[in-house]
Design goal:
This protein is mainly α and about 270 residues long. The chain has helices at about 5-15, 20-35, 50-70, 80-100, 105-125, 130-155, 175-190, 205-215, 220-230, 235-245, 250, 255-270. Helices cover about 70% and strands about 0% of the residues. The termini are far apart.
């Protein structure tokens, strides 16, 4: 299925959802796409001086959507800043890597479309959410397709890992990712919990994402990522409130600096 057909199908599946569930769908689509940022086990397609800012904006964008979907009202005035930074990151990514992105460097292309997914997911918080959510899913789909194309060219194959219920034998690929996103929409329509909630489904992509984050001092964000998966994408509201309360000057210092602040605050509040 090509991108256009996929987005048409997504529209038919989510058009009748409530506004809250449309935003939840956009959020989960973004979260599912994030491992495609690090197909090559790093974030080296970004300039070193920009990397922490871009990563921080992507994760804060994720938290904004989690907050809006949970209707907790923690979202601060930094939403505009975050939206702008993600947009700048996407534009800069195209400017810095456009030739590579469209001449065979599909790992670079995958990362670019994750940024687009983040930008459109954030947009669901301040504009009509339906079109933005469909765009988010479409960008996630393109990111996945580019990522799996890169893996195919690299002669890397991997299987879905064993879960507590059954062993999957199908190979994770664009079609499987597409089915998972459409399954998310179906679960929302049926009022059921999300399925495929083990990050191991990504095989080595999961490990690359984890290692890339850890190398940049962002192990905190990897732990959060796994917790979101295992919790069916329902955030711990106390932890979300703390993340949303991070001072603007901390948030704008980048992902690693924000992680250090959060870890200190978690220890401080736990000791009180």
């Amino acid at each position: 299925m090509d991108e256009k057909k996929f987005m048409t199908l997504v529209r038919s599946q989510v058009s009748n959802l409530s506004k809250k569930d449309i935003i939840r769908f956009a959020g989960v689509s973004l979260i599912r796409s994030l491992p495609f940022l690090a197909i090559k086990n790093n974030f080296d397609y970004w300039k070193k001086e920009d990397m922490q800012t871009y990563l921080g904006a992507v994760f804060y964008g994720m938290d904004i959507i989690l907050d809006v979907a949970a209707d907790e009202g923690y979202t601060s005035g930094a939403t505009d800043y975050t939206s702008d930074v993600v947009a700048i990151a996407f534009t800069s990514h195209l400017a810095d890597g456009s030739a590579a992105a469209y001449e065979g460097d599909t790992a670079n292309k995958a990362a670019g479309f994750v940024l687009l997914a983040a930008a459109r997911a954030i947009a669901t918080s301040y504009t009509t959410p339906l079109d933005a959510a469909i765009d988010t899913a479409g960008a996630a789909y393109v990111a996945a397709d580019a990522a799996f194309e890169f893996l195919a060219y690299s002669h890397i194959r991997f299987n879905l890992m064993e879960t507590t219920r059954a062993r999957y034998t199908t190979t994770m690929n664009t079609r499987r990712f597409e089915e998972i996103l459409l399954g998310d929409a179906k679960n929302l329509r049926k009022g059921r919990p999300f399925t495929h909630t083990d990050a191991k489904i990504y095989g080595p992509i999961r490990d690359n994402f984890r290692e890339a984050l850890e190398a940049e001092g962002c192990a905190y964000w990897w732990r959060l990522y796994e917790q979101l998966f295992s919790g069916s994408f329902i955030p711990d509201l106390k932890a979300l409130k703390l993340r949303m309360s991070a001072p603007f000057e901390i948030r704008t210092s980048g992902a690693a600096a924000t992680a250090r602040w959060l870890e200190k605050e978690e220890k401080r509040t736990a000791s009180n």
